[in-house]
Every structure is written in structure tokens, then in C-alpha cells.
Amino acid sequence: MSVSRILLNSCAASALLALALVLPVAAQEDVAPKDDKVIAVVNGHEIRVSEVQMATDDIIGQLPDLPPKVRYPFVVEYLIERHLLAQYAVKEGIADTEEYKRRLALYQAKALRDAYFFQKIRPMVTEDDIRKAYEEEAAKLQQTERARARMILVATEQEANDILARLAKGEKFEDLAKQYSLDGSKDYGGDLGYFTAAEMVPEFSKAVFALKVGETSQPVKTDFGWHIIRLEDLKQGAAQPYDQVKTAIRNVLLRRKVGEVMEKIRAASKVEIIDPDLKKYAEDAANAAKAYQEKQQKALDQVDGGILDSTADPAGDASSGKGDLQVPAQ
């Protein structure tokens, strides 16, 4: 997994499904014992800061998009209601039912998994590891030239020449892109955002980096058709400040570490599939899961690679249409 894409912008990356099953949310820092104050009491039960933190980690994916100041009382109210229902469940004998015991076993496994992550795996990624990854990728970025360009993609050379003529008469590039371009970038007025030469197909990159800022190319042929390209900006890569990307880099390193630990644990364990129907489809499911993980890994690399570089589109690919022109991940 590439840490370099973290340096581009601070947008969050989606976790791999397989890793999400074993990687608890780790964005928040641990609460020191002296700071673990009581913030509410429910029929004698003390709710502390640490419990709110654990609950937030547990349900973060279910929370609406709330600012931190609003999210905090939201989670506290969730805990109050949870403890009230739990207390009444005990009063009414629910704790003696088989349903409760099955759920308890499931939640106990989750609690142990989460505790193992926080106590054993997370300490494996140190401040020195994060700093080293940042410095290595930041150095690479400083040596990488990035271009921002717009393009209009059409099917024939004649169409491309006709558009060039209209541009020469003063028509706006953005308007012609929206009207005639066959590529998804038309929705952005042909804007491709920032990219490196290696990210795009060779013929396109060669044409882009031969231009001066503000210049428009002659028709350029690629496998996708004929392109008219305008260079908007050209600059060296620049890393965002360490403090802004530290958490994102740590999470990438943690995902990597979880994968390593799980691989060793599975290799040392015996896992048997008993259900005959499940056995029948186990191999197909394993192949599908592997393909899905590889696809997600490539997507995650692309997103992470955009977090470190301060010249990247702030909203990632959502703000540009480079799409098809990008060289497929190997």
C-alpha cells in the first residue's frame, strides 16, 4: 500500500472489507486514567470519558455527519439509553436467556479482538515509523512534477481541428468541453485536476508536459480518440505538514500491520469449513474475496496516494475527470 498518496490531500480512504473486519477504529487517542472523569450516572452506573470513546469507535459508521461538539452529547445519550435498557433487561430476567448468552459470546469475541488490536498491534506502529514514512514519501513528492490540464476528447482528427478553430476565435475551452467532449471530464469543463506524467497514458503525458502554462495543444491521438489539451498549471509536488497527515499515515501503516499479523495467525491456525453447502462454494468465495480485496487495495492506494501531496485536488477525483486516461494500477 502506498503511503505517498496520503500526502496529497486529507480526504479519508475507505478501508478494505477484509481488514475492516479486524481493524477497529483507531482515530482517537487513548484516555489517560487521570483524565477518565465521570460525565454521567445512570441508576448508579458511572459513564466515563473512556466509555464514550469506546462507544464512538464502535458506532462511528452509524453516526450521522455531525461535528465533534454535537457528536459527543449524541454518543452520551446513546450510552444512557443503552444502560437503561440493559438495567431493565437484568430486572426482567433477560440475562438468563439463551438469546442473551449467544449475543454475549459474540460480543465477547469482538471485545477481545478490539483489545488485542489496541494492546498488541497498534503499539507496533511507532511515532518513528510514521515520521520515516512521511519523510520518505515527502522526498519523492518534491522530485515529482505535477500538471493540471483540461482536455476535449473527440472521435476524429477533423472534429479536433474544428474545435481548435473555434478556440482560436475566442470560444471558451470549458464550454466546448462540456458540449463536445466524449470523456467524463466534460462534466468538469474538461478539468483533469493535477497528475504526474506516470499517471496518464504516455502519448497524453508527453503532449501535456511539452506545453507551457496557458498553451493549447494541437490534436493528440491516443487509444481513446483525439484530444485537445490546455495546460492550466505546472508545479513540483509539495507535502502537507506532518501534523495534518500523521493520523492518516498511521492508519495506513496499521492496516498493513493488521494484514501481516492476520496472515501469520491464519498460517498457525486450523480453520475447518463444516457446512457442506459452504464447502461447495468456499473456493469460489475465496477467489472472489481475493479479487475484491485486490481491487479495493488498488483503490485504497490511489486514494491514500492523494493525501500527502498539497497540489492534489482537495476533493480527490470527485473534483476532476481524469478517469479513463489514468494508467491502470499494476
Structure characterization notes:
This protein starts with 16 loop residues before the first helix and ends in a 26-residue tail after the last helix. A 4-stranded antiparallel sheet has the order 4-3-6-5. The protein is elongated, with a radius of gyration of 26 Å. It is built from 10 helices and 6 strands, in the order αββααααβααβαββαα. Helix 5 crosses helix 9. The chain is of the alpha+beta class. It has helices at residues 17-20, 49-59, 68-91, 98-121, 127-142, 157-168, 173-180, 202-208, 242-267, 276-304, and strands at 38-42, 45-48, 145-154, 191-195, 220-222, 225-236.
Overview in brief:
By secondary structure, the protein is of the alpha+beta class.
Shape: elongated
Strand content: 5-15%
How many angstroms does the end-to-end distance come to?
12 Å
* Main pleated-sheet profile: 4 strands, antiparallel
Compressed to H and E, one letter per element, the order equals: HEEHHHHEHHEHEEHH
Task: Please mark out the parts with pLDDT under 50 across 5 or more consecutive residues, or reply none.
Answer: 4-23, 314-319
Record keyword descriptors for this entry:
elongated; alpha+beta; 4-stranded antiparallel beta sheet; 330 residues; two-stranded antiparallel ribbon
